[in-house]
Amino acid sequence: MLQDLDAILLARIQFAFTVSFHFIFPAFSIGLASFLAVLEGLWLKTGQQRYHDLFKYWVKIFAVAFAMGVVSGIVMSYQFGTNWAVFSDKAGPVIGPLMAYEVLTAFFLEAGFLGVMLFGMEKVGRKLHFAATCMVALGTFISAFWILSVNSWMHTPTGFVMGDNGQFLPGESWWDIVFNPSFPYRLVHTVIAAYLTTAFAVGGVGAWHLLKDRTNAHARTMFSMAMWMAALVAPVQIFAGDMHGLNTLEHQPAKVMAMEGHYQSHPEGAPLILFGIPDSERERVDYAIEIPKASSLILKHDLDAPLAGLDTIPEEDRPPVGIVFWSFRVMVGIGFAMLGIGLWSLIARWRGRLYDWRWLHRGALAMAPSGFVAVLAGWITTEVGRQPWTVYGLLRTADSASPLDAPAVATSLVAFVVVYFAVFGAGTWYILKLMAKSPHPGERGVKMGERGPIRTAGITPGPTQNPGDPDSLPRNRKEAE
User: Fold this and answer.
1) Domain locations in the chain?
2) The pTM is what?
3) Where is the composition biased (Basic and acidic residues) (predicted)?
4) Is the pLDDT of residue 455 over 60?
């Protein structure tokens, strides 16, 4: 049976599976690191213990999410050499240095200060610890900066020259590569999405504890902060998404055609198809619910502006319409639902019922995982919409894969599925277990063992010896030595 499968399709499924698992955790840790910095800053400024308690409550969750993000990212990167060796060979001179910069700047910065943030609260001064927390938050942003630069270059490649051996080589300026045309839009849209993902996760946890005890001061604080984020940032994200869409229309029109479900060109204004069932064989959207000329208004700011359709794109260069069409609607639908929750919270806050409006709390709890679904739907729209290219318009996916047989790729795919669901499923369960516990005064934060953190490169200190305790003295000469 495995002999009949397509090795390239299996390799794409494997990469999509691993990158989807991976991105859930960075999307959470990027926003959560900044949230921790805000909490600690408020504690230092106001001296209110509840901010300190919430910091220690959420830093435990951050530690687990950050660790799973690092592990899943390392595993994912190996696929460039195993399943996509041709792509790595051809695009390596451009994307390799950018990914190395991510390690040398962001990862080293995070690793250097993470231990201080997790274990140094009682060992260094408050200001130094706050600086370490800020450095970890900055490191997560820098990491997103470099990775999104790499990804954006694959969508809008610039600043390169083609070598005699078919490789993409850096041109005269690295800045043209780093700041490629789609990068600023993708960076803003993705980072804001990470902040909203965290806000709704925090808001969902706060709502859960308010439903159990509406007088819980810690739950009130986290819920209020999350709802402010939803109310203020969701409209900004919708605007940023619109700008990103206009940039995509300029550089990747076929993707926007698939997102909109426009199989045919519309010379006198294109409709906005809200829902429907794309039929690529007949090149139409069945049972379409649409608003006449609204797509032209959104994309061209003119009701009568003409919009080209997929009939202007060669069939072999078209992305899969069905997946892109629906994933885009999932992302947009969740975005407007987030806006709705934010506006609802403003009404509740204005009426003085933010902490006892139980239907609002139920809605926020239901929306707790919405950010994760939205970012996955957004990435599906972006990456599937780029097909059939890995480097848009220049290197096809079919020409990027390693010369592997289908059984080899299928075997590793099955292994990834089993291991990922076991390991990261357990980690996710543990995070949910931590969230289920109510924050309380005197939170302990990340616990250390009796001997403290392990000194990997040095000597792990033994227990403190007490002359009055016979168990602390060496039992023989060899142990004493």
Assistant:
1) 193-394
2) 0.86
3) 440-453, 472-481
4) no
